[in-house]
Amino acid sequence: MKNFASIKDEIQKIAESILKEYNLQIYEINNFFDFESDVLQILVEDITEPNKALDFDSIISSNEKLSDALENFPGLSEPYMLEVASAGIEKPIRSKDELVKAVNSYIHVELNQEKNTSSEIEGILLDFDVNKDTFRITYFLKGQKKKVDFKYEQVKFARYAVKF
Fold first, then answer.
1. Which structural domains are found in the chain, ordered by start?
2. How many CB atoms are located within 10 Å of the residue 137 CB?
3. Could you report the per-residue pLDDT of 1-18, keeping only the tens digit for each?
4. 29, 53, 85, 158: least buried by Cβ within 10 Å?
């Protein structure tokens, strides 16, 4: 789509109103060329629990309803393929607000500096202390339970993780 940047906000408004009906929200909107056609990809997550497993029927129904709504959208005159999909179980946590929503979730976090001899930690994000502006994560290191406090500014990268 040559004009994707100019119509992305309008597509987002249309999609948001439809996705709310299915308790979904937009995680990311992408446009790329694949299989010899333009693809409009809308990655979604649950509104209340960002890392909750999504109902396949909700994704299909929202895709169909969104397809109908975009059919007469003037900015999409060229042929394209619509893909509404889950953002994924190990999706990146991109902001402080998203990290706050991840409290009580199992996450992977990479810090700018080592804490307890490690800069990469996988564990349960226990808490966000508003007064101290710090997060607390609990994890196991060599069989021992550890807790570490960190500020969002110390985070190099964070994502949801799967505990095995």
1. 4-86 (3.30.300.70), 96-160 (2.30.30.180)
2. 23
3. 788 999 999 999 999 999
4. 53
